[in-house]
Write a structure and sequence with these properties.
heterodimer; A: 839 residues; alpha/beta; Rossmann fold; Helix Hairpins; two-stranded antiparallel ribbon; 37 helices; 10 strands; 68% helix; B: 104 residues; alpha+beta; SH3 type barrels; five-stranded antiparallel beta sheet; 28% strand
């Protein structure tokens, strides 16, 4: 008696196999992927009467002929993983078709336990089974179960141990395929044994059958020309005599056996129709209602994924910004620490870049699991197929493509719902052409800069439509070249509607999100760090301008300028009172910046500042200082409050409120002017004429320094090296540099443009950036930039998702390379034609 | 009718021709699943070659002799839904054209 039992769960899609697996294993399961493909691989464990039973959930399949990747994987696992027993999950309410797989499993010679799942549903539909008799026909025990209610677990495990221990000894049936076919089968079987061709550890009869069924995968693996010849000859012989190719005859015989067995053992007490499903379908696929319902569901999916995900994304972003700020403050301000930059900009930025997609992915997969588990997904494909088939895609391609308007990453992950590899790859490759949300930030920056109000909405619309048209063209092109040949059959089951279980949806959602984190996440993180390093190094040590010297000069000019205020305040012209106070303030501010690193010095600086101010106040004219400083602070605070209230009112579109606020502001100022006219004027002059220009100069110097450092970095150099290549599109090295940065994420393009144009990467800089862009470029170039960002260079997250979902780097290379070349061609044509037309 | 494939060497070329003749003899009207309207019932006579579709259809239970019923046509006129062996299957019209049937 073996202690450990290795069992596989096999069954049709929609047979409820996964729910049986979930309740048998409880929480103890591990999800992964079959190597190189997106088919999920679940393993779990359960202990039964002191014996450990390991369970592998095989992909859902209808047959064992290598028709789909799932079938190949399931077959390989069954042939080579050495299972002690196969648990065949059968939808009892759809018996005949489910038993087709059972027959093939029997022919493979594997010990079998048949689980009649959803037996309650079958009973409600008036189906009665003579289980003892059926069990005899199929030579395997039959266990009724209800997967989503968790019924039948112990019985299944008991049957498993019975079979493994040899306590079940019904004879297994051999299906007879008719004289002609049997003749060919034995010929091939003999040849296989005679020539001692290694038939992959499978029963020779089964191999012969599969070869006759036209199984290309098996044929390639055997690589035995003499067998191929015999099979071909046999197939021709069979067809010439019986008029049908062997694969049809074989399927026919199997169904004949199944029908025969069912006729005697299955009783229908009621006329079986899927009443509820039929009624739902009458509405959901109705000519008038199908599309409103479909787009309603799509709208909900989109809203759930992006709108509901938004607060979580903002939360994650803020959390990481907070973390970055906290960590940053451990270093003195303005210091160039490698470690700080790596941690804050590289790693925290990278991890944030991975996690920021998580809310979208979790919610999207929740919606998709719901659509799939309920049975609606098959109907969505049913109603959309006509349209999608026209562009060489599948009905199910529509949903991932729609998701692409939100973000390519979850969209590419959603291509998993497509069973067929060709459809899946084509859809995946064109998804980046659906203009995603991140690219909207680029359009939002460029369109208002170059185009008048009336043109803005149509411009945005044109960009989106160009993306859709190109997606159609590229999909058709791929179908005509790389993926040519007859399109894959659309032969698809429309399963009865079912209420998805919470557990099923949550398990699905969790598994897929985890896979994203594990695989795509690590790639995105790595790429983010590399891109960070490219924009940081090599660091520029010697700058073209002496920025530190310039800052000191600006400071001296500021202090000097403040002297001009003396006359306003009735001080002697040569008085140093104000300039000394400003000097003390500036030093105090510098010391504040260095606070964290040098606490002792900070305290010393604070004392020094306080002493200086106190001493100045003690001098003959000190009273002025005493009054002026609170006035400046008062003005700063009052203005900041006013500006904030005004912005809030503007955002709310509350115009009367804005008028009232402005009125109140004028009144406040008038009052202040009445009480202390000289002081107010001096304070206003101080702020407007001296302090603000000084502060702006400092910021500008910092920005110019950043721009110089960026041009010196590898990113900047790549941008410069790219200039001759992107010149035909109307781009210069600055756009090139920003495009390189946009690899990390499309929205980075705007921030990078801000840096190379020395306007900074803050949000307020957008207006300044726009005016700089208008100075430098024409609207045609603006349009070309949008076009290039729309088509070319998918971001690293998209590439990571494609790598994960396609299973090979070559598809990533094709996608990224192909789209970038396409972007270049389209943009260059538009630019050249536009220039020629004098735009 | 699908045109006969180009002759191959040996006796194989004959298969195509013979196959076609037999189809016509079996099904004088040339009636296919494609010609059926929702609510129509039919019995499958034969499945013509159409890539891997014929094998797939057979595996899904659409074997000669099986009775099927056209349930509905998708809103855009393609694909169609048929009821076979107690469950619902959808297939495109071009695939339905490969299924030769007789009315019941």
């Amino acid at each position: 008696m073996t202690q450990k039992i290795k069992a596989a769960l096999a069954g049709n899609p929609n047979s409820g196999k996964t729910s049986i697996f979930n309740f048998l294993t409880g929480g103890r399961q591990h999800v992964g992927n079959y190597p190189g493909v997106t088919v999920e691989k679940r393993d779990g464990e359960v202990t039964w009467q002191g014996r450990k039973v390991t369970l592998s959930d095989l992909p859902g399949i209808y047959s064992l002929t290598a028709y789909s990747i799932e079938e190949v994987l399931a077959r390989d696992a069954l042939a080579h993983d050495g299972f002690d027993v196969v648990i065949d999950v059968i939808d009892a309410s759809n018996l005949e078709r489910n038993l087709y797989l059972t027959v093939q499993l029997l022919e493979m010679g594997l010990p079998l336990v048949m689980v009649f799942n959803m037996s309650d549903l079958a009973a409600r539909r008036g189906l009665k089974f003579d289980e003892a008799q059926l069990s005899k026909y199929f030579g395997a025990p039959i266990v009724p179960a209800v997967g989503h209610k968790g019924k039948g677990g112990p019985e299944i495990l008991k049957a498993v141990t019975d079979v493994v221990d040899g306590r079940f000894d019904h004879e297994r049936p051999i299906i007879h395929y008719g004289k002609e076919v049997e003749c060919v089968i034995s010929e091939i079987t003999d040849l296989l044994t005679e020539k001692q061709i290694a038939h992959l550890g499978l029963p020779a009869r089964w191999v012969a059958l599969k070869l006759l069924e036209g199984d290309k995968d098996l044929r390639e693996r055997l690589a035995a020309p003499e067998i191929d010849e015999a099979v071909e000859r046999g197939a021709r012989h069979i067809e010439s005599i019986l008029g049908d190719p062997p694969e049809i005859l074989i399927a026919d015989s199997r169904y004949g056996f199944i029908s025969g067995a069912c006729q005697e053992t299955v009783k229908r007490t009621v006329e079986a129709r899927h009443n509820a499903s039929d009624k739902i379908d009458a509405i959901v696929t109705n000519r008038a209602l199908a599309f409103p319902i479909f787009f309603g569901f799509m709208y909900l999916t989109f809203q759930l994924t992006f709108t509901l995900g938004e607060p979580f994304m903002v939360g994650i972003e803020n959390g990481f910004a907070w973390l970055a700020g906290g960590l940053s403050s451990l270093w003195p301000k303005g210091s160039d620490s490698f470690l700080r930059s790596l941690l804050v900009d590289g790693i925290i930025g990278g991890v944030g870049g991975v996690l920021v997609f998580l809310p979208n992915i979790v919610l999207l997969f929740m919606a998709i699991s719901f659509l799939e588990d309920s049975g609606y997904m098959a109907r969505a494909a049913f109603i959309m197929d006509r349209l999608m088939h026209k562009i060489g895609l599948h009905g199910k391609s529509f949903i991932p493509m729609l998701i692409g308007f939100g973000c390519s990453v979850p969209a590419i992950m959603a291509t998993r719902t497509l069973e067929n590899r060709r459809d899946r790859l084509t859809t995946m490759l064109v998804i980046p052409l659906m203009s995603c949300g991140a690219r909207l930030t680029i359009y939002a920056m460029i369109i208002p800069a170059f185009f008048p109000m009336a043109w803005r909405a149509p411009m945005l619309w044109i960009i989106y439509v160009i993306g859709i048209i190109l997606a159609v063209i590229v999909a058709l092109f791929l179908r005509k070249t790389l993926f040519k040949g007859l399109s894959e059959p659309f032969v698809m089951e429309l399963p009865p509607y079912r209420l998805p279980t919470l557990r099923g949806v949550v398990v699905h959602m969790w598994e897929r999100s985890w896979l994203y984190m594990k695989k795509a996440g690590t790639l995105i993180l790595g790429a983010s760090i590399i891109l960070w390093a490219l924009s940081m190094y090599p660091q520029k040590r010697v700058f073209d301008q002496d920025y530190a010297g310039e800052a000191i000069r600006a400071r001296t000019a500021f202090v000097q300028g403040v002297r001009d205020l003396n006359t306003e305040l009735g001080l002697p012209a040569e008085s140093d009172l104000l300039s000394e106070a400003v000097e003390a303030d500036l030093e105090w501010r510098a010391a504040q910046d260095a606070w964290y690193a040098h606490e002792k010095e900070y305290q010393a600086a604070q004392t020094a500042w306080q002493t200086t101010i106190d001493e100045l106040a003690q001098t003959t004219d000190g009273a002025v200082l005493h009054d002026l400083r609170p006035m400046i602070d008062y003005l700063d605070e009052a203005y900041a409050n006013h500006a904030e209230a005004l912005a809030k009112a503007e955002e709310a579109g509350d115009e009367p409120m804005m008028v009232a606020l402005n009125l109140k502001w004028t009144q406040t100022m008038d009052e202040a002017r009445k009480t202390s006219p000289v002081l107010l004027k001096a304070a206003e002059q101080y702020i407007a004429d001296y302090r603000t220009p000084f502060e702006e100069r400092l910021i500008h110097l910092e920005e110019e320094k950043q721009a110089e450092a960026m041009a010196y970095s590898i990113t900047g150099r790549i941008g410069q090296a790219l200039e001759p290549v992107i010149r035909p599109c109307g781009f210069d090295w600055r756009i090139g540099t920003a495009l390189v940065g946009a690899f990390a994420a499309k929205e980075v393009f705007v921030a990078q443009m801000g840096i190379v144009f020395a306007v900074g990467d803050e949000v307020e800089a957008t207006e300044r950036l726009r005016s700089r862009l208008v100075e430098e470029y024409t609207p045609l170039i603006g349009f070309c930039v949008m076009l290039f960002c729309l088509i070319g260079m998918p971001c690293v997250a998209t590439m990571a998702a494609t790598r994960r979902e396609s299973g090979a780097w070559k598809w990533v290379a094709l996608q990224a390379g192909g789209l970038t070349v396409l972007a270049w061609i389209v943009t260059a044509i538009v630019f050249q034609a536009g220039t020629f037309m004098g735009l | 009718m699908v045109p006969a494939p180009a002759p191959k060497k040996g006796f194989g070329w004959f298969r195509g021709g013979k196959c076609c003749c037999k189809n016509i003899a079996d099904n004088a009207e040339g009636l296919t699943l494609r010609d059926m309207k929702p609510g129509d019932k039919a019995r499958i006579l034969k499945i013509r070659r159409h890539g891997v579709t014929n094998r797939r259809l057979a595996e899904m239970g659409m074997t000669p002799g099986t009775e099927i019923k056209v349930v509905r046509v998708a809103p855009m006129g393609d694909p169609i839904e048929v009821s076979v062996r107690g469950y619902s299957l959808s297939l495109r019209k071009e695939e339905a054209a490969a299924v030769l049937i007789e009315r019941v």
